[in-house]
Design goal:
Helices cover about 55% and strands about 10% of the residues. It folds into two domains: about 80 residues, Orthogonal Bundle (Arc Repressor Mutant, subunit A); about 170 residues, Rossmann fold (3-Layer(aba) Sandwich). It has about 280 residues and is α/β, with parallel strands linked by helices.
């Protein structure tokens, strides 16, 4: 059953205010799935009690009950791998188009001003903690790999050891949190705990109704297309690479010196093969 199926049988019993709420929810169910009572009330230009009455009229005990139901519905129909893997019918064209659109929108979102705002807390932090949901982990790994080459104290936090790894986090640190719907419980609860400790949160997420967006003013919205059963990692990885480049510019000579030391260590330890392929080979 969909939200449309719930509303249709009672539409003639809805008050004008409830019809306005219904129109908002039908146009964008994520307003209900990820927003608070106050968020939806503000959007509908009504009161919190009106939102609660709307939920009970749909047959739920209250707003929280309705929200839990619609989150489950959205998770199943919009982001369930078993559902999404059947959507493209084997054609690569829709996937290619979706990824190209997501890349374009990532560049549009991450203009110079936004990149500076996201990078500055990373540059200034005593420690940088990187957290991620499973499907956004590629971006987190790319960020940790790049940042660790240009500054110290960069930590990629593993889900199974979150509490232990974050036990030394404190005010003056920055946590970069990647997560998109479906939001991973561990990354969201850890981000909230870090925020309460005074840790600056930089959120890489998918919209203003993300639970991460309420924790910080330093966040960006990425368009994350579905690629078969998975969310695409491309926008998150692209964001990570742009952030690393911005931090390099902000650190300046400090980053250059660290890279020089790292290169010296690579040479001293023989990290890479002393090999260059010839420009051409005879058959």
């Amino acid at each position: 059953m969909s939200i449309q199926d719930l509303i249709a049988p009672i539409n003639d019993r809805l008050t004008p205010t409830e019809r306005r709420i219904a129109a908002l929810v039908l146009a964008d169910p994520t307003l209900l799935a990820f927003g608070t009572v106050s968020d939806l009330a503000n959007q509908a230009q009504t009161s919190r009690p009106s939102i609660v009455r709307f939920a009970t009229k749909l047959g739920f005990e209250g707003y929280t009950d309705l929200q839990s139901w619609i989150r489950n519905e959205l998770s199943h129909h919009l982001t369930s791998p078993s559902e999404r893997i059947r959507q493209h019918g084997g054609s690569v064209a829709p996937i290619r188009s979706a990824i190209e659109d997501a890349i374009h929108k990532t560049f549009m979102t991450l203009d110079e001003q936004r990149l500076k705002a996201l990078a500055t807390p990373i540059t200034r932090a005593r420690n940088v903690w990187i957290l991620s949901g499973e499907t956004s982990m590629a971006g987190a790994i790319a960020l940790q790999s790049g940042l660790s080459m240009i500054r110290s104290n960069v930590n990629l936090v593993e889900e199974h050891s979150t509490g232990r790894e974050l036990s030394s986090a404190a005010k003056g640190d920055t946590a970069v949190v990647f997560d998109f719907a479906r939001y991973r419980r561990n990354s969201i609860t850890a981000a909230r705990a870090l925020s309460e400790l005074g840790v600056k949160i930089v959120a890489i997420t998918d919209g203003p109704l993300s639970p991460l967006a309420s924790l910080t003013t330093t966040w960006c919205e990425l368009k994350i297309p579905a690629v078969g059963p998975f969310d695409s990692s491309v926008p998150a990885v692209l964001t990570a690479e742009l952030l690393v480049n911005q931090v390099v510019m902000q650190l300046g000579k400090e980053a250059h010196a660290r890279i020089d030391r790292l290169e010296g260590l690579w040479q001293a330890t023989g990290t890479f093969l002393n090999y260059s392929p010839r420009a051409s080979r005879d058959p």
